[in-house]
Design a protein that fits this description.
Elements (H helix, E strand, L loop, with lengths): L23 E8 L8 E4 L2 E4 L1 H16 L3 E8 L3 E8 L62 H23 L14 E4 L3 H13 L14
Antiparallel strand pairs: 1-5, 1-6, 2-3, 4-5
Helix pairs in contact: 1-2
């Protein structure tokens, strides 16, 4: 399904020079290799998640449980792709904030689009001082600050987990096979600039199944 022209467009090129470990919200689309429809079935003129599709959704739902600093928003499993919103908070459960104040993405995007991340207030500690990821005493062998997951890290882990589970499903339950890899190597991403952009993309995700018959990802059109 294509975006409404009035809504931000998904992009396939990462922003050059942008630190993807900084806190921020991202709209992502990941497509099945060769566009094969594996995750939903049509029944009574409606789309329903099949067993592989439910597995995909469950793994997405569990991302915040397994990975500190990762939150999820709207998500939809389509027959041959998924749309979702991932938020990197830069926070860990031990209370350490690893995210620097979220800056503005480069004004010149080398892919030509040039979107900017929406600036937010500077991260602060309990005593009101700004917190940065400064090195601790050089004599210490263990850093108290954990490395935040970047967006590519999260996507890679999502792809890896779902692929492993899907292969198990092929062996144990006779799920439809795929060629070479489950997911395409690349993925689409868009940085949320503001609340209007966020809400627009939420609506896009929620309404995506209604537009499947006209979706360019639909192999039957």
């Amino acid at each position: 399904m294509k975006f409404n022209p009035e809504c931000p467009h998904r992009r396939s090129i990462r922003l050059h020079g942008y630190d993807y470990s900084l806190p921020g919200a991202y709209f992502i689309t990941i497509c099945v290799q060769n566009g094969k429809c594996l995750f939903r079935k049509i029944q009574d003129a409606k789309m329903h998640l099949n067993e592989p599709g439910r597995m995909i959704k469950n793994i997405w739902d569990e991302l915040p449980i397994h990975y500190d600093g990762v939150e999820i928003d709207e998500f939809i499993v389509m027959p041959n792709h998924v749309h979702g919103i991932i938020v990197l908070t830069g926070n860990h459960r031990d209370g350490v904030q690893t995210g620097q104040p979220r800056g503005v993405a480069p004004t010149t995007d080398h892919a030509g689009a040039g979107p900017r991340a929406c600036p937010v207030d500077q991260t602060s500690t309990n005593n009101g001082l700004s917190q940065t990821a400064c090195p601790i005493d050089s004599s210490s062998k263990i850093s108290l600050i954990k490395k935040s997951l970047s967006l590519p890290d999260v996507i890679h882990r999502f792809k890896t987990l779902t692929t492993r589970r899907y292969i198990d499903g092929i062996k144990q339950s006779g799920w439809a096979s795929f060629e070479k890899r489950l997911w395409q190597r690349n993925y689409y991403e868009h940085i949320m600039r503001n609340e209007e952009s966020l809400n627009c993309i939420r609506d896009y995700i929620i309404n995506n199944p209604l537009k499947w018959n006209s979706d360019p990802e639909n192999p039957n059109i």
